[in-house]
Design goal:
- It is a single chain.
- By secondary structure, the protein is of the alpha/beta class.
- It has a domain at about 450-545: ANL, C-terminal domain (GMP Synthetase, Chain A, domain 3), CATH 3.30.300.
- Helix content is about 30%, strand content about 25%.
- The chain has 18 helices and 25 strands.
């Protein structure tokens, strides 16, 4: 029997899911809550609403029309938050430029995205000067600055300075209705080979992601992260997957928001302390930096809730944050998934456990959030059992996944093979629904016919009290195919390879680890290579070791 479809009501007005519907909630509930930048400037939500509309009028005066792409090159700031709304609400596309790519890659992404207008912070003016002759579609620049000094402008012919331009515009702008499937944002993700790939998201996808994240992070007792009285500060670049989408949620809920600008570990800790920040999100390497900096070592982090993603959270690092009073949760997603797929949720029984026993749940990847269909599949496509031991590649379906890569039809087909998005991550799913990421497919260490998880080895090594940070990769071996290699940042200079090998031996004796998993070589280093978004860069580590 066919499904019934309601007849359309001729008098009913179409109500598309557009970012302007999120913006409509800004200041509706808590108009006096503040949005602050580095402790140097702050605005009420009423002022924020006016500034977004002034920015939209500024962009229109600069010639921006629906369908155009506007690039932003800035640190985490109130300006960037205003761009999150003004640009897509005009029907234009916001290009989050990854300012940590190489100049050649940045020029490639800006040409590929067909950027028309560029908003650039003073810190990136030398970069823009370096690449502007190679930009084929850009016809204007707006300056973003934290100072009145004009000496940094160089040879770029700016339309004007951001704040000065806003002051010339009316604080009222009528934002149009249009198709909710229109592209709102784009940014570029790097892979192991080739040029960066452009992912993109529609208004509908971002609105649905925002609504779901608001309920996920604010409605469950086992995940009490974000509510209207929260004080929110991102420690994830706003150019990376919309800062995980949380700024949209924070605006909808009217949260107090703190934007830190360029990341300086001591400043970040001071902002957390002085503004009584209650919730942030970051990758493990950034958390380790905050705990290790001078101010971080002296500061308690009570009442600070942290959502960790980007890579696996080692239990040793999680315990160090908890010892400071922080509350740790984990999440999982990708650039291609907008990003939220799973998050830590502790049920009543798990919340009643001592913290030492809760730790294993808090450092797993979490459980799939609402509306996410997540499975693990064997290489032949069959589903792997959910027993915590069987492994398979994570494939997903959800309403907010990118439909493909911009101008990359073949790569789009590979991403969506079989009608599901392939993540490239190998995982197990426990009987209680918790997902445990074992590794990226490309990072699994294949030694002597056995698969070793680099993430598991990192987790065990991190639990030694003298380890500050660790990365494990597989290196070629004539006899075994590959062998694990560990790179460790020690807390104490006396830490040795033999000490860590002996530390791992206890897990072999308990049956938790194969004896072949103990690395033959553990190198002590001052720092570990990181990607443009702060993750451990295993590609770079392998490249260094191959020379």
């Amino acid at each position: 029997m066919p499904t019934k479809i309601l007849p359309s009501a001729k008098a009913a007005k179409n109500y598309p899911l557009l970012i302007k519907q999120i913006f409509a909630s800004a200041g509706r509930f808590e108009p006096d809550n503040k949005i602050s930048y580095r402790g140097e400037a702050e605005f009420s939500y009423d002022e924020f609403r006016q500034r977004v509309q002034q920015l939209a009028n500024t962009l229109k005066a600069a010639g921006v029309e629906a369908g155009d792409t506007v690039a932003v090159m800035d640190w985490d700031s109130h300006r960037y938050l205003e761009c999150y709304f003004a640009i897509p609400m005009l029907g234009a596309v916001l290009h989050h430029v990854n300012i940590r790519l190489s100049p050649e890659q940045i020029a490639y992404t800006m040409n590929h995205a067909e950027d028309k207008l560029v908003l650039a912070h003073d810190d990136f003016i030398p970069l823009v000067q370096q690449i502007q002759d190679h930009l084929t579609t850009v016809d204007g620049y707006i300056r973003l600055t934290d100072t009145s000094n004009s000496e940094t402008v160089g040879e770029i012919d700016f339309i004007g300075e951001y704040e000065a331009l806003l002051r010339t515009q009316e604080p009222i702008c009528e934002f149009p209705d249009f198709d909710e499937n229109s592209i709102a944002t784009t940014f570029y993700t790097t892979g192991t080979t080739g040029n960066p790939k452009g992912v993109y998201f529609s208004h509908r996808q971002l609105v649905l992601h925002t609504m779901n994240m608001a309920t996920t992070l604010g409605s469950y007792e086992g995940l009490p992260l974000l509510r209207s009285d929260s004080v929110y500060m991102p420690i994830t670049p706003m150019f990376h997957v919309h800062a995980w989408g949380v700024p949209y949620v924070a605006v909808m809920l009217n949260c107090t928001q703190i934007y830190p600008g360029r990341y300086e570990p001591d400043l970040l800790v001071r902002l957390i302390r002085d503004h009584k920040v209650t919730v942030s999100h970051c990758v493990p390497t950034i958390l380790q930096m905050l705990l290790a900096c001078e101010t971080g070592q002296k500061t308690r982090l009570d009442n600070w809730k942290i959502l960790i993603g980007g890579s696996a959270l080692p239990q040793g690092l999680a315990q160090a944050a908890i010892d400071k009073g922080a509350d740790i949760y984990s999440a999982y997603g990708m650039s291609e998934t907008c990003p939220l797929l799973t998050v830590t949720h502790l049920n009543k029984e798990q919340r009643s456990l001592p913290m030492a026993q809760q730790l294993k749940y808090r450092t797993l990847t979490g459980v799939p959030v609402n509306f996410v269909d997540l499975t693990i599949s064997e290489p032949d496509g069959s589903l792997a059992v959910h027993d915590g031991r069987a492994v398979g590649e994570i494939t997903v379906q959800a309403p907010w996944l990118t439909q493909g890569y911009f101008k990359e039809d073949q790569k789009q087909e590979e991403l969506w093979q079989g009608g599901r998005l392939h993540t490239g991550d190998v995982a197990s799913i426990h009987e209680n629904g918790f997902v445990e990421i074992k590794d990226r497919i490309k990072d699994v260490i294949k030694t002597g016919g056995e698969w070793l998880s680099s993430i598991e080895l990192e987790n065990l090594i991190s639990q030694h009290p003298d380890v500050a940070a660790v990365a494990v990769v597989g290196v070629p071996d004539e006899k075994w195919g590959e062998r694990p290699f560990a790179m460790v940042v020690p807390k104490q200079p006396e830490l040795t390879q033999a000490t860590l090998q002996q530390h791992l031996q206890q897990y072999v004796e308990s049956g938790h680890l194969s004896k072949w998993a103990i690395p033959d070589e553990i190198q002590m280093v001052d720092d570990i290579p990181k990607t443009s978004v702060g993750k451990i860069n295993k590609k770079e580590i392998r490249a260094q070791l191959s020379h």
